[in-house]
Design goal:
With about 375 residues, the chain is an alpha/beta fold. The chain is built from twelve helices and nine strands.
Length: about 375
């Protein structure tokens, strides 16, 4: 009688597993560049685009460099927190395994990476978008082996996807004469080249199961500190051509996203345009509580451009008042504002209600 009871329980468990399947939470998979990188490049030994030295990460967790190209969080970190999504670890994190992927997703973003394979080649090692998608395919194989094809398909289709690249295709490719693309295309034909490539990449992600995709546009690239200091126009002025290219990229990307969202079955692809938000922040920083939007917080003082932040760099007195952390990347405070404005604009809704957002920077924003 006892044996029969145990057999009945075992059969019931098998039936429940068959009916309900593997209990997966909704996670996110992030494809991007240094604005979203959380450590991949730090594991690329030959990469020249790494956030592996102080003072990167000074306002995040234990204050040590963690691979983020900022003093604190990325925009993706903050938006994910607000949506109740766990922060996905870097693909190259040695601790990554199937259980962690099922619980947190994966971040494939790589500093210096772009939509085009040739972008950022002088950084030696970096993952472009095609390579990131290839790594995602490998992730899928791992999960299929872990929970089976049917449940894996459900897991990947319910996940959220972020695609945020493009700035390096201009700043570290087209706008640099050392790259063939700079003399092979006009402004118009280069943007079209990017669109053709991006469209193919988004279709490929859809074939791999991505259904809920957020594609982010570019901010006013011509106003980052590096572009300003290299400008041949009035001292400290933004580079108009670079900003015009960003606007053109955004306009065309929006069209591609609309087309694909309509054409691809069961696809919800949205375009996130932060240009106006960031431009307003840079143009009128005091409106948002900042007092500097044209130079980096971490630099060598008057020696510009600094290119990267290193232990010998001089930090600004109040990191919460600077829009930019280094010559390229926004500060944690700026990322917070940008993320908040994007959430308002796009109406992101919480996904995993029980997930507690990760904390904001652990250290005060004043210089150490």
């Amino acid at each position: 009688m006892m044996s029969l009871k145990f057999e009945s329980i075992s059969i019931l468990i098998v039936i429940l597993l068959h009916v309900h399947g593997y209990n997966c939470k909704v996670v996110q998979f992030i494809f991007g560049d240094s604005l979203s990188d959380v450590g991949n490049n730090n594991y690329l030994a030959k990469s020249l685009a790494r956030a592996s030295l102080p003072w990167y990460g000074i306002d995040f967790g234990n204050g040590l460099p963690n691979g983020r190209f900022s003093n604190g969080r990325t925009v993706a970190d903050i938006i994910g927190d607000k949506m109740g999504l766990p922060r996905p670890p870097a693909f190259l994190d040695p601790s990554l395994n199937e259980d962690i992927i099922l619980e947190n997703g994966v971040n494939y973003a790589s500093g210096g990476g772009g939509i085009l394979n040739e972008t950022g080649s002088y950084f030696v090692q970096r993952f472009g978008l095609y390579k990131q998608i290839e790594l995602f395919e490998g992730t899928q194989d791992l999960i299929i082996a872990k929970i089976g094809k049917t449940e894996a398909q459900k897991f990947f289709q319910e996940a959220r996807y972020v695609v945020a690249l493009g700035s390096n295709d201009f700043i570290n490719n087209y706008l640099m004469p050392v790259y063939a693309d700079s003399w092979s295309y006009s402004d118009t034909t280069f943007v079209q080249y990017l669109m053709t490539t991006l469209k193919s990449q988004l279709k490929l992600l859809h074939e791999l199961g991505a259904r809920k995709v957020m594609v982010f546009g570019l901010g006013p690239m011509g106003c980052i500190p590096l572009q300003r200091v290299l400008s041949t126009s009035a001292a400290g002025a933004c580079q108009d051509r670079t900003n015009t290219l960003a606007l053109s990229f955004n306009q065309e990307t929006s069209k591609v996203v609309t087309q694909l969202s309509t054409a691809l079955p069961n696809a919800t692809i949205r375009f996130g345009d932060a240009y106006d938000v960031v431009n307003d922040l840079i143009t009128t920083p005091s409106k948002y509580g900042f007092n500097n939007s044209d130079s980096p917080c971490c630099s060598f003082g008057k020696i510009r451009p600094a290119l990267t932040c290193v232990p010998a760099s001089i930090l600004c007195k109040d990191r919460s008042k600077y829009v930019f952390w280094d010559e390229y990347h926004p500060s944690d405070a700026a990322n917070q504002l940008i993320a908040d404005e994007m959430i308002k604009k796009l109406g992101f809704n919480p996904v995993n209600q029980s997930h507690s957002p990760s904390p904001a920077p652990a250290f005060p924003p004043s210089a150490s």
